[in-house]
Write a structure and sequence with these properties.
- By secondary structure, the chain is an alpha/beta fold.
- It folds into two domains: 2-143 and 266-295, 3-Layer(aba) Sandwich (Rossmann fold), CATH 3.40.50.2300; 147-264 and 298-325, 3-Layer(aba) Sandwich (Rossmann fold), CATH 3.40.50.2300.
- Helices cover 44% and strands 19% of the residues.
- It has 14 helices and twelve strands.
- It has helices at residues 2-26, 43-55, 78-87, 98-105, 121-124, 147-158, 176-190, 202-213, 226-230, 232-241, 251-255, 266-281, 303-308, 315-318, and strands at residues 29-35, 64-70, 92-96, 113-117, 137-141, 164-169, 193-198, 220-222, 246-248, 260-264, 297-302, 323-325.
- The protein has a seven-stranded mixed beta sheet, sandwiched between helices. A five-stranded parallel beta sheet has the order 2-1-3-4-5, with helices on both faces.
- α7 (176-190) links the parallel β6 and β7 (193-198).
């Protein structure tokens, strides 16, 4: 009798544990995604995030639901979109891109926030340090300021006779001063002169391009941020018409006609965002999760643009490229 009682108790406990696991598996994790950008510009990044979530066991339609909100270039829509996502009772808010993350940092958000941010979270004021965010927000920064110096080295390799470089920069982008420090240091070592052209607004960008037309610079470097991405067509058309090589850090610029990009492999960063979702869903606090910097980088060369501006790229650079656009 005692043996039967023990077996019965063990069986009951097993049923309870199994039932608990089933309930846990059936629980749907609800994510809210908010950005000021357009959906089309983020398709590869969202695909990388979804694939990484699936590898961790979160599958849409089974135990995961994602509510997407896109601002289509209007950052002023972000506060209402965040409020709407909170009314939908999302468990974690995912904020994408500098404009949206900056807005979210100033809103009363009741759920944990994980982000991908183009700038420096410490300079932006919503993280005490990369190692210890000490807030309800954490995630990944795409800023690798040292890569701006590497871009100048690649530019000099392409155009050995180059002396003057124009640089388009949004001074309000958090961390742009760090990027300038690295750029100026590399420029001094390479014997290059740099001239900075601000681009906070479309009007300021237009004025800067007018001023650049009278500048001696024969090449252009773009500090990557969401404003530059949104207005890349205007910048690239200006430069290509003048046969100026254009460099930047994000592949979207090369895909749009820049001669070369070297910087973070963005899809890898968005894939890593899934690890934050997983850890937070399992009880970790954003304040305790260090902010990650990029760890994988890629060199993309646009051969069509090289032909259009009459530039022959050195073989030493072609063999190092991760991707060639032809």
């Amino acid at each position: 009798m005692k043996r039967r009682a023990v077996l019965g108790t063990a069986f009951a406990l097993a049923l309870m544990q199994n039932s608990s696991r089933i309930r846990a598996a059936d629980k749907v994790l609800r994510l809210g995604w908010v950005t000021a950008q357009e959906a089309a510009s983020l398709t590869p990044m969202v695909a990388a995030l979804r694939a990484s979530l699936a590898r961790l066991g979160y599958v849409e339609g089974r135990n995961l639901a994602i509510e997407f909100r896109y601002g289509d270039g209007a950052v002023e829509r972000v506060p209402e979109q965040v409020a709407e996502l909170q009314r939908l009772a999302v468990d974690i808010l995912l904020a994408q891109g500098g404009p949206a993350v900056n807005v979210v940092s100033g809103l009363p958000v009741a759920v944990p926030v994980a982000y991908v941010f183009s700038g420096d979270p410490v300079s932006a004021g919503f993280a005490k340090s990369l190692a210890h965010p000490e807030s309800n927000m954490t995630g990944l920064t795409l800023m690798a300021a040292e890569m701006n110096g590497k871009l100048l080295e690649i530019l000099r390799e392409m155009v050995p006779s180059l002396r003057d470089v124009a640089i388009v920069v949004n001074p309000e982008h958090p961390g742009s001063h760090i990027e300038r420090d690295y750029t100026d240091g590399a420029a001094r070592q390479l014997g290059l002169r740099t001239e900075y052209f601000p681009a906070r607004t479309r009007d300021e960008l237009a004025s800067s391009l007018d001023a650049m037309a009278a500048s001696p610079a024969r090449a252009l470097s773009i500090f990557s941020d969401s404003f530059a991405v949104a207005n890349r067509r205007q910048i690239l058309d200006f430069a290509i018409a003048r046969k100026m090589p254009v460099m930047s850090g994000w592949p979207v610029f090369a895909d749009s006609g820049a001669l070369c990009t070297y910087g973070p492999r963005l899809v890898d960063s968005y894939a890593r965002l899934a690890s934050y979702v997983d850890r937070i869903a399992k009880g970790a606090k954003p304040a305790d999760l260090p902010i990650e910097r990029p760890t994988t980088f890629e060199l993309v060369l646009n051969l069509k643009t090289a032909n259009a501006i009459g530039l022959k790229l050195p073989q030493s650079l072609l063999v190092r490229a991760d991707r060639l656009i032809s």
